[in-house]
Design a protein that fits this description.
Layout: H1 2-20, H2 30-54, H3 60-122, H4 127-133, H5 137-210, H6 214-222, E1 236-238, E2 243-245, H7 247-258, H8 265-276, H9 287-290, H10 296-306, H11 334-337, H12 341-348, H13 358-371, H14 379-391, H15 401-422
Antiparallel strand pairs: 1-2
């Protein structure tokens, strides 16, 4: 009887600890929320201002002012991403601490279960043994109640362990989602850094071009004939092949693909440009070093079908914060690419579609964008499709807005460039 009483006291004391312990994730309270909201409002203001100014360029000063507005918008977006990165790192650390505490808790619960089972094993196994173990009727009733309470305690502990296991799995999923988001935030930040450098380069190029020819420059500006930096010189480079395509050439290829899927060719080209800088940055990585091992079998299967040496084809390099291994101009991971091969084959007619082939890459990207709703050809549908291409199910995260903004802005530049060269 004393053994059962001690066992129950220990259980309820432990259960109290279990139910009182509930780790709460609290990250960067109200001041961070207010700062994020304020900066996002400023970004939206610059977005509208840029759109208005783009249609009203009349002077060299207007053009340089537009570049400065884009740079200020970029600086604000970078501030947003830096804050989001810090918030994400904090949440990851708290999830890791919560998971560690939950694992410790489950270990203690399992020890409690083992103790309950041992004590129940020592209890009388039948009515005769129970009667002999009691010195009186009241003692008999006490022992019976103690055994019943022990069984209930056992059931409660089993339920607690199962619930904590479910919570642990949920916290692990949350942690993995945060880690994936951290990778995307790092990528956005690096793209923003590159874009700031490009804006400075464009400003210097325009100033150098205008020079003493400001009047001529502004006349061309009024006629919409100022070529965007890079667009006309060489729009697309296929790394390792040495083949260069002009804007008109690659537009014709994109047009052939998008007609089958009701997409805007300029939107598709802008996305591929964003993914690989017009094909120039398909990657300098090595699959064994930079690709996640789970992608290896599919990657090797793709290269084998194409008759390529896997050690010689370019893939994206692994950054410090995640994995690389994306392939070709549209930057597909091997596991994603194979899911589109049959439909790519129908569009391009290539028996063995290659992620490093420009036509196949354009077709794969177009299919993925169409699936995400870009066939509606509205700004909202294209913005959503671009974000889904980049972030998948996490596309609604406002910290990724820069990615879609860049694509939509470049699509407008491409269309303006083509229009100017038709005239």
């Amino acid at each position: 009887m004393e053994i059962i009483r001690r066992m129950l006291m220990a259980f309820f004391a432990f259960a109290g600890c279990v139910f009182l312990f509930s780790p709460v994730l609290s990250v960067n309270a109200q001041d961070l929320h207010d700062s994020l909201f304020e900066i996002r409002a400023q970004v939206e203001g610059y977005r509208q201002r840029i759109e208005e100014n783009r249609a009203d360029l009349k002077s060299l000063q207007d053009t340089l002012g537009l570049i400065e507005a884009r740079k200020r918008k970029l600086a604000l977006e970078q501030a947003l991403v830096r804050m989001a990165l810090e918030k994400n790192r904090t949440m990851i650390a708290e999830y890791e601490r919560a998971i560690e505490a939950k694992i410790t808790l489950i270990g203690r619960e399992r020890m409690m279960l083992a103790g309950l089972l041992r004590e129940l094993d020592r209890a009388p196994k039948d009515a005769v043994a129970l009667a002999f173990s009691a010195r009186s009727l009241s003692g008999l009733m006490d022992i019976a109640r103690g055994i019943e309470l022990s069984h209930r305690a056992l059931q409660d502990t089993v339920r607690a362990v199962r619930e904590d296991q479910r919570n642990l799995e949920k916290q692990k999923r949350n942690l993995e989602e945060r880690r994936e988001e951290l990778v995307l935030l790092h990528e956005v930040y690096l793209r923003q850094q590159l874009r700031l450098v490009e804006e400075d380069d464009q400003k210097r190029a325009i100033q150098a071009y205008a020079g003493k020819r400001t009047v001529l420059f502004e006349e061309l500006l009024r006629r919409s004939e100022v070529a965007s930096v890079t667009l006309q010189e060489e729009f697309f480079k296929q790394e390792g092949v040495g083949k260069r395509l002009t804007l008109q050439e690659v537009f014709a290829r994109a047009d052939a693909v998008t007609k089958q899927l009701s997409l805007r060719p300029a939107f598709l080209l802008a996305l591929v440009a964003q993914e690989s800088k017009f094909g120039a940055f398909q990657g300098s990585g090595f699959w064994k070093d930079d690709m996640h091992p789970s992608q290896w079998p599919v990657f090797l299967s793709i290269t084998q079908r194409l008759g390529l040496d896997p050690d010689r084809v370019p893939v994206s390099k692994k950054p410090d914060y995640g994995w690389g291994g994306a392939m070709g101009p549209a930057q597909f991971l091997p596991g994603t690419w194979v899911g589109y091969e049959d439909r790519i084959r129908q569009i391009t007619g290539h028996a063995a579609p290659s992620p490093w082939n420009i036509d196949d890459a354009l077709a794969g990207a177009a299919i993925k964008l169409a699936e995400a709703g870009a066939s509606e050809q509205s700004e909202g549908s294209e913005r959503k499709a671009a974000l889904m291409y980049f972030a998948g199910g996490n596309w609604q995260n406002p910290d990724f807005a820069f990615y879609a903004d860049s694509i939509l802005e470049l699509a407008k530049e491409i269309e303006a460039e083509l229009h100017a060269n038709k005239g």
